[in-house]
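re the bet — no i am not wrong, look at it urself. input seq straight from the record:
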Amino acid sequence: MKSSDMSGKRKIKVIPLELMYPFILVTSLFALWGFANDITNPMVAAFKNILLISNFESSLVQSAFYGGYCVMAIPAALFIKRYSYRSGIVLGLFLYALGCLLFIPSGWMMSFAPFLVSYFIMTCGLSFLETSSNPYILSMGPEETSTQRLNFAQSFNPIGSLLGMLVAKDLILARLDKTDEATRRVLAETDPQALKVISANDFQAIVMPYAILGVVVLVVMAVFIILRFPGAKDEQHKPLDLGGTLRRLWANKRYVEGVVAQIFYVGVQIMCWTFIIHYAADSLGMEKAEAQKYNMIAMGIFVSSRFICTHLLKYFSPGGLLSALAAGGFVLILGAIFLPGMAGLWCLVGVSACMSLMFPTIYGIALKGLGDDAKLGSAGLIMAIGGGCFMPPLQGRIMDAGAFDLGFMTLSSVRASFVLPLICFVVIAIFGFRTSNVHRHSHKNGHPLPSL
C-alpha cells in the first residue's frame, strides 16, 4: 500500500470538526445523568436510617431508579425512530426535571413510596436521554471510530458523577441528623413526635438538592429547544418494522450477548458503588459521610482510568481490553471479600479502574454495524440498565442475613454479599473474550489508527 494511503487512513477523525458543536452539547448530557446516578446511590443508606427499614427495603431506591430505564427504553426508541434524537433528548429532560421537582411533595408526605415514584419518573427521563444520546454520539462520525467516540463522550459522565457524590456528601449526608438507628428505634416507641422532627429535618436535606437539580435540567431543556441541531446521518424516518427489527437483533449473537453483558456490568457497577458505604461501616465502623469520601476516590479513579483506557483502544481490540479488565475486577473483588480492614476497602475502591471502560465498550461493540436497527438496539442496551434494578436488592437480602462460616474463616454478610459482583465480572470477561475471538470482524492489526 502506498505511504500516502496509509497517511490518509491515519488521519481519520474521531469527532469531525463540523460536528464538534453538537457533540459538545450532547456530551454535556452524559455528565447530567451521571450526577443523578451518584447523588442517588448514597440515598440507599440514608433512607435505611431515616425510615428504619432493612437493607433489602432501602435498596428499592435502586429498583425504582433503574426500573425507569427498563420500562421506558423501548417506548423511547420508538419515539426517536418516529421523530428524532433531539426530540427524545427534550422529552427526556422534561421527565428528568419533573421527577426531581416531585421530591418537594414527596418530602412533605414523609413517606417512602412517593420518593420511589419520583425516582421512577426521573429515570424514565434518563432512559430517553441515554437511548437518544448514545446512538447520536455513535452517528457523529465514521463508523470505524464509533466505539472510541462513545468512550470519549462517556468520559465526561464520571465528572457529573463526582459532582453528584460531592453534593450527596456535603449537602445531604453531612446534614442528616446524627442520631443512630438504634436510638431512632427507641424514639419510635417512646417519643414518636421527636422522631418525626428528626425525620422532617432529614427529608429536607434530601429534597433540596433534587429540587435545585430539577430547575437546572429545565434550563438545559430550554437550550435544546432553542438551538438548532443537525440531523444524524441515520435519521431517515423509515417506516417502523418492529417485528423485522426484533428478528434481526435476536439473530445477531454479538448484540444479544452484549445485552446480557450490559445487564451484569450495570449490576456490578451499582452494587459496588451503592454498598461501599455499608462495606466501610461494617468493616471499619466509618460514618456515612466519611465512607462517601472513598466512593469519591473510586470515582476519581474511574474518571482517570476511562481516559487512559480510551487511549489504549487505539492499540488493543475493545473485546480484548474488556476481558482483561474484567479479570482484574474479579481479582479485586476477591480482595474485598477476603482481605481485612483497609486492604479490603482499597480493593473495592480499585475495582472502579477496571469498570471504567465497560459500559461504552459493550454498547459500541453490540451496536456496531446495525445501521437503522441501532435505534431499537440501543433500547435493548438501555433496558439492560435494569441490572441495577434487581441486583442491589438481591445483595441487600444477603446483607440482611447472618455471618457466613466458611470453616477457615467467618465472613460478615456484607463481605459475603460481594460474591454477586464476582459472578458479574465472569460474565463480562466471557463476552470480551468471545468478542475478540468469536465475533471479531474488523479489529485487525492493520486497522487504521484514529485520532481526536
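see?? The chain has one domain: 7-229+242-437. told u. also The domain at 7-229+242-437 is CATH 1.20.1250.20 (Growth Hormone; Chain: A;). so pay up
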